[in-house]
Design a protein that fits this description.
Layout: H1 2-14, H2 25-37, E1 42-46, H3 52-59, E2 63-68, H4 71-84, E3 88-92, E4 104-110, H5 118-123, E5 125-136, H6 156-162, E6 166-174, E7 181-188
Parallel strand pairs: 1-2, 1-4, 2-3, 4-5
Antiparallel strand pairs: 5-7, 6-7
């Protein structure tokens, strides 16, 4: 959708960087556990923005594809990855229409919610592959204006992932933060 592309390009142009240069704290804190679980090192980062998590995974030895709608954010990610000597395949795509091709050992979904995309993400996981997801939770402490369809409801993330063939290894909701979040670490069923 052109409106989303324009909105995100404008947001990235208005600030030096939208998020920190470092990876998501949840990703960094979970990496050792994730490395012990995933069957390989092929990763997908959805709505990657400026690529902070994609670049971090590339530095950890992953073959990473980062997907986002904003060419401005992706160009920042390309420049930063080149400066750091990392290799990330950045893909400009509207996630309303785009679906993963091939299989991945790790899929990141941070600060983005498109419920209808989640089944195709799990389908594209390698057996034993992992989804690491953290996104905004609808809670009384939430600041600012947000559209309800892009907010998780309390308990919803657990319900969504319980329907897939695999196991939820971590499920948390932190409703007391200024930006409340829900997190999940899901592992797809291994073959055999």
């Amino acid at each position: 959708m052109d409106g989303d592309r324009i909105k995100w390009d404008r947001r990235y142009r208005e600030v030096e960087r939208f998020f920190s240069l470092g990876p998501s704290r949840f990703l960094a804190d979970s990496l050792v556990r994730v490395l012990s679980l995933v069957p390989g090192r092929k990763a997908l980062d959805l709505a990657c923005g400026e690529g902070r998590n994609s670049i971090y995974l590339a530095q950890q030895g992953f073959e990473v594809s980062g997907v986002d709608i904003s060419p401005v954010g992706l160009e920042r990610g390309r420049r930063r990855a080149a400066d750091l000597g990392g290799s990330v395949r950045f893909i400009e795509a509207d996630l309303d229409d785009w679906r993963p091709q091939g299989s991945y050992d790790l899929i990141l979904n941070f600060n983005f919610l498109m419920r209808g995309l989640l089944p195709s993400l799990v389908d594209s996981l390698s057996p034993g592959g992992v989804v690491l997801m953290e996104t905004i939770l609808d809670a009384p402490s939430l600041q600012g204006e947000h559209r309800k369809e892009y907010l998780l409801q309390p308990g919803e993330l657990g319900t969504i992932f319980a329907a897939f063939d695999g196991r939820v290894l971590l499920l948390e909701e932190d409703a007391c933060l200024e930006t409340p979040v829900a997190r999940v670490l899901f592992q797809k069923q291994k073959k055999g």
